[in-house]
Amino acid sequence: MRVRNNDYRPIRPAADFEPELRVSVVIPAYGAQDKLDLVLAGLARQTYPAGLTEVIVVDNGSDPPLRLPADCPPDTRLIRCETPGRGSARNAGLAEATGDVIHWLDSDVVPTAGAITAHMRWHHAAPYLAVTGYIRFSESPLPEKLPDDMEAYFEPAEPHAWIVRLVERTDGLTDNGERPFSLHVGGATSVSARLIEAAGPMDGDLVLGQDTEMGYRLMQAGAVFVPEPEARAYHLGPTMRMRHKERIDRVSYAFIGDRIPAYRWLRRHPGRTWKIPYLEVLVDGTAGYDTVRATVDALLAGTAHDLRVVLVGPWDTLERDRRAPLRDPNLELELVRGHYAYESRVRLAADDRVDPAVPYVLRLPPGWAPGEDSVAALLERARTEGLGLINILLDETPDGVVSARLERAASFARARLLAGPGEDLDDVVDEVSGIVWVSGESCGFAGEQPAPQGRRSAYRARVAAQAEAERLAKETERLRGEVARWRDEAGKWRKSAVEYRREIATLRKEAAGLRRDLSAADRSRQTLRTAFSARVKRALRK
């Protein structure tokens, strides 16, 4: 089954599967014998076959030493790890494990009877999964013996709110292509042993956050992360994180920011370099000093600052000719090495192998220089669209197509797990993540490009932008003043218009009165004229 990104829904585990895989339950423990006894009693009740289950308890230096109680699974053994730290203890248990699946379990987390079966149902359906169960936090007093009805005894209990929220806001983690590894918690997660072998053990240098950091490397190795609500367990009391979340986050973030590039919000500083960069760019370092420098300098000057350039060449074979350097047949390689030997974001390598923890790899032919924002824009598109590969068409020549490739490492790791004999890896990547082609010209790549100005030009551009913003702000204020003045003028005009309308109405009334007076005068005149005519006529008759 080929899952696209982290959408595991096409995988349909059978409820009545035939158990075949062996599971190793690894429990790091330090003191708290009473809680460990309850955890082992819970494991002894599992419905998954005991013959396919081994339990490895790692005593991480307890004083007095821990012991195995009578009520525990048949294949349970106790080992001791004196190196302090849960990561070291888990690695010690991992080294002893023989199972097809590794199930991490904390020494204060009691699984319900069907928990391991719920995990293993998924692992029988696909060999590249990390399955996390649901933990509920109970504050019920510790019983001397594990109750028959665990749910009745340990409830009411609080859910693992952070996991519940993560699952709900990502549609069951199916639309979270970049950070599903956050679900990998050491108290309730099972992982294919094959994936752990590819990803490597837990980071023993970390004080906190080992689970998350390993989850990130599992994702890089091709894992699909599945939340399984039927795999239930009870945490005996609140966790240290629940009691001191802000303080623990402060310690954890100080270390995992260097190791988990996907936590981009921990990498806001624009000038820092990190242990694991977000991008590695592979460039052939043998193409000539000027050609290589045009590409590398453009990369270093871009807005995608969280990167490392890997120059591939026979660097270990160089022997500098101190007597006649200009006649040195390896002069071009010497110039490249000398120019970038002390640049922290450039690594000289003998081959094109990349760090599997790096999320993205750009394979760029020398001589092609990306624009200032070209690489950042490609990375953003790959991230937001969940793409496994972006092919950048740079040129077409009689000898063929010249292209660059931006690869998502996790997609190619998944494809290598799934590819059949002779199957083209890119075709599998297209199925599990997607592939697109883009034009190099449209992305700002050029065969010839002016020398990059880098941060100085960015600084000048920022200063110019700030000056322009200030000018526009002043112009805006001036225009606002003009608008206010025009509004005042318009108000006066409206007031004058009202007064004029009133005067006109008064004049109209006066005119109407005058017209009435004139009309009355005309009638009086006509009456007088008629009377005078009649008088004249009477006088003439006499």
Principal-axis shape equals extended
Q: Termini distance?
A: 140 Å
Query: How many strands, what sense, and barrel or not for the largest sheet?
Result: 9 strands, mixed
Alpha-beta classification: alpha/beta
Write down the Rg. 40 Å
Spell out the blueprint of helices and strands.
Layout: E1 23-29, H1 33-44, E2 53-59, E3 76-80, H2 86-96, E4 101-105, E5 109-111, H3 115-125, E6 129-138, H4 150-154, E7 157-159, H5 161-169, E8 188-192, H6 193-199, H7 210-220, E9 224-236, H8 240-243, H9 245-259, E10 279-284, H10 289-300, E11 307-312, H11 331-340, E12 346-349, E13 360-363, H12 374-385, E14 389-397, E15 400-408, H13 409-418, H14 425-432, E16 435-439, H15 454-541
Parallel strand pairs: 1-2, 1-4, 2-3, 6-9, 10-11, 10-13, 11-12, 14-16
Antiparallel strand pairs: 4-8, 5-9, 6-7, 6-8, 13-15, 14-15
GO molecular function: glycosyltransferase activity
Coiled coil: 462-524
Protein name: Glycosyltransferase
Structural overview:
- Keywords: Coiled coil, Glycosyltransferase, Transferase.
- Residues 462-524 form a coiled coil.
- The protein has helices spanning 33-44, 86-96, 115-125, 150-154, 161-169, 193-199, 210-220, 240-243, 245-259, 289-300, 331-340, 374-385, 409-418, 425-432, 454-541, and strands spanning 23-29, 53-59, 76-80, 101-105, 109-111, 129-138, 157-159, 188-192, 224-236, 279-284, 307-312, 346-349, 360-363, 389-397, 400-408, 435-439.
- It is an alpha/beta fold.
- Strands 1, 2, 3, 4, 5, 6, 7, 8 and 9 form a 9-stranded mixed β-sheet that branches. Strands 12-11-10-13-15-14-16 form a 7-stranded mixed β-sheet.
